[in-house]
Design brief:
Blueprint: H1 3-28, H2 39-75, H3 90-95, H4 103-110
Helix pairs in contact: 1-2
């Protein structure tokens, strides 16, 4: 992978990380209820907040994958399969910039 491609993927990953951070913040911010809710409203609102917090956890996991990919860029190992050492095709990284494995190995893992 050449320097221009690495810059492209680093910028892409940083943009995704920024977007995720905004989404996490939004999901974790408790709603400000301006009216006095009834018992049913409180249950619905609590459920919504719980679901939002769970979704934020999923986004945090994705943020961890992005941080890992950024670290690999800094270490010079981005785009290299963690299992086989083969280069992950650019086309795969364009679709999934946090990919860890070459498609052949990923296929074997999924079987």
């Amino acid at each position: 992978m050449n320097a221009e491609q690495l810059i492209h993927f680093k910028e892409l990953l940083l943009a995704q990380k920024e977007q995720l951070a905004r989404e996490i913040k939004k999901l974790e911010t408790p709603p400000a209820y301006e009216n006095t809710p009834g018992d049913e409203d409180e249950v619905d609102e609590s459920t919504d907040y719980f679901n939002s917090t769970a979704s934020a956890g999923d986004l945090r996991e994705e943020m961890g994958r992005i941080d890992h990919a950024l670290l690999k860029i800094d270490q010079g190992t981005y785009g290299v399969c963690e299992a086989t050492g083969k280069d992950i095709p650019i086309e795969v990284l364009e679709v999934n910039p946090v990919a860890l494995y070459h498609p052949e190995h990923q296929k074997e893992m999924n079987q």
